[in-house]
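In response to reviewer comment 3 from the previous cycle, which asked for concrete evidence that the modeling workflow produces usable outputs, we include below a single protein chain processed end to end. The sequence was submitted unchanged, and the resulting structure tokens are shown without manual editing.
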Amino acid sequence: MVALTLDLDAETEARLDRAAREAGIPKSRFVADLIREKFSAIWPAELAALAGSWGNDFPELEEIRAGLPSDAPRR
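The workflow returned the following structure tokens.
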């Protein structure tokens, strides 16, 4: 495990104190959880590179739905 020192302004420190207290966890765990959450939202480069790779071959919505029965009525 790595120790990390953060320099925070007074307002940010107060917000961190409050949020960690409300979550019932130590500040270090609160910050570690935020870092893990941030990194989990980053797609691997290999996956991001696939965006748009199908070109114009992907069917339009109307083509996908063609021949399907009508949807059930909504309330």
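The chain has a mean pLDDT of 89. We consider this sufficient to address the reviewer's concern, and the full set will be provided in the supplementary archive.
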